[in-house]
Design goal:
Helix content of chain A: 55-70%
Number of helices of chain A: 8
CATH class of chain B: Mainly Alpha
Largest sheet of chain A: none
Oligomer: heterodimer
Largest interface: A-B, 39 and 49 residues
Number of strands of chain A: 0
Order of helices and strands of chain A: HHHHHHHH
Largest sheet of chain B: none
């Protein structure tokens, strides 16, 4: 009853909100009822809170029918696919890179002298042609150097090509 | 006494949640069936238009599915799920502030006919307009309580605030809502 004695309309409104929300204890609820019995203004407010609560609860969209399932499942499904897509895109690139790597690296390991022909081997390979042309293998100067420059290639490039 | 207490919401089947966590699309479909009403309602009350609410609802479920690994299956599902939904709603509102919209106010609703339906529609629009005028902290609390039907403890977990803070926000939010809603109806008595 102490609450009732000192309750003003501002406090009563707080209690009205609490009551609407279900927070109010029995004691405070009784105190509020006593205040309402003697206060027309707060009685009107109490009715307004009834109306407001009805509006909030009645307009809840729980019963509104929207068919989300199909769209959500489709979107989630494509999400899963999208996640795996980068790997599918990357694989061909990785394969191409691997081929290039092999092409670049292989000569480094295979360009030893065993795969190069010696002067004698070249002469032997072309011996029939040389014979047909009437050129003696011995007549070919072993010290004769091939020069790109004689074909008009700039010296700098010639040096690079020789290397 | 005019009590507005609601029965505690029936939680989603834990088995569905576990399957959802593993990426089961059928479990996702079941979650959509279970939560789509409340999520759509949240979208409607947070964003204000049906089109936005529909897009938002779809995004919430897809986003939750995408982020499902961040959910701990040993913990309650609802607070985590509604937190995802709420954050998405906040993000949309933030983007809307950055990109002003000409149709930010609710203008379109469901296509309905009949006098009672029209009254219902007007009431729904009034509620949404009033909610949109509240501070976001109050709006979120009211939406979680009345649209998502969460209990106080669940709201506290969702928002990461104390139970006392939830009560305070709900009380202040309801008082502010009442004021705006009544003014929106022309302040008439005997509502």
């Amino acid at each position: 009853m102490e609450e009732e004695a000192k309750m003003d309309c501002n406090r009563a409104e707080e209690l009205l909100a609490d009551r609407a929300l279900g927070f109010l204890s029995r004691e405070l609820s009784d105190a509020l009822e006593n205040h309402l019995a003697g206060c027309e203004r707060c009685s009107v407010e109490a009715e307004r809170y009834h109306s407001v609560m009805d509006a909030l609860q009645e307009t809840a969209a729980e019963n509104m029918t929207i068919d989300l399932s199909r769209r959500v499942i489709a979107a989630a499904g494509s999400l899963s696919k999208r996640k795996s897509a980068p790997l599918r895109l990357i694989l061909p690139v990785l394969a191409a890179a691997a081929v290039l790597l092999v092409m670049v690296i292989t000569p480094m390991f295979t360009s030893d002298n065993s795969l190069m022909m010696t002067r004698q081997e070249v002469l032997d390979a072309y011996s029939e042609d040389l014979e047909f042309l009437g050129i003696s293998a011995e007549g070919i100067k072993s010290t004769q150097e091939f020069s790109y420059e004689s074909y008009g290639v700039p010296p700098a490039l010639s040096e690079y090509l020789v290397q | 006494m005019h009590s507005n207490y609601k029965e505690p919401m029936t939680g989603i089947d834990p088995d569905i949640v576990k399957r959802f966590h593993t990426g089961d699309l059928e479990a996702l479909r079941q979650l959509v069936d279970h939560f789509q009403g409340s999520v759509f309602g949240m979208g409607l009350k947070l964003l204000g238009t049906v089109d936005d609410a529909k897009d938002y609802s779809q995004d919430v479920f897809v986003h939750a599915y995408e982020k499902r690994h961040k959910f701990d299956p040993e913990r309650p599902f609802e607070p985590w799920f509604y937190k995802v939904a709420l954050n998405l709603g906040r993000e949309r509102l933030r983007k809307r502030r950055e990109i002003p919209r000409s149709d930010a106010m609710p203008v379109e609703m469901f296509e309905e006919t009949g006098e009672s339906v029209v009254i219902e529609k007007e009431k729904r629009e009034l509620v949404q307009q009033a909610l949109l005028k509240l501070k976001p902290v109050y709006r979120e609390c009211l939406v979680l309580r009345f649209e998502s039907d969460l209990q106080l403890q669940e709201i506290a977990q969702t928002l990461g605030i104390s139970l006392g803070a939830v009560k305070t926000r709900l009380r202040r939010g309801l008082m502010a809502f009442k004021k705006v809603y009544v003014n929106g109806r022309g302040g008439e008595d005997g509502l």
